[in-house]
Structure prediction request, 199 residues.
Amino acid sequence: MNIVCLDLEGVLVPEIWIAFSEASGIPELRRTTRDEPDYNKLMNFRLKILKEHGLGLREIQDTIGKIDPMPGAREFLDDLRAETQVLILSDTFTQFATPLMRKLNWPTLFCNELEVAENGEVTGFRMRCEKSKLTTVKALQSVGFDTIAAGDSFNDLGMIQASKAGFLFRSTEQIRKEHPELPAFEEYGDLLEAIRKAL
Prediction:
């Protein structure tokens, strides 16, 4: 029994923090898991910047409301879900992802939660579990699933390497260079074909 585990940002939708960096004019918020492997360090850095600029959840959600899935992402996901189970594993937060899930036809998503004060200030975050993508893939394997995984960032490497088949999708040159053993794709059609062969 197969289940495909996909990253969200950079694979199906644009990077939320990059979009918010552009909307807010704060270049430091462009840093993502493509640049910083330590997610806790990255999020604490982001929260510090938000606090310094007096920005909260509402401002980020306003930006997210204008984000659309990448061209072809919904069709890719619909085609894939017609053939096998698909689970989106993301280090994003439910408060960010819900509008995007609507635009992707409500796929199943496992992600994290932001801690938000009554005034909308983002005060912290709760991770679902340690190394959430790798931990989830191992849990799925422990209950009888063969996993196939695809992602673009440092925090996807664990689930990709632990799966029976794993792929990089629209990843960085650095990650592709450091992991030449992982097939890397740029187009949804090519990724879909590779996943079909692995099913």
Observations:
- The CA atoms of residues 62 and 68 lie 13 Å apart.
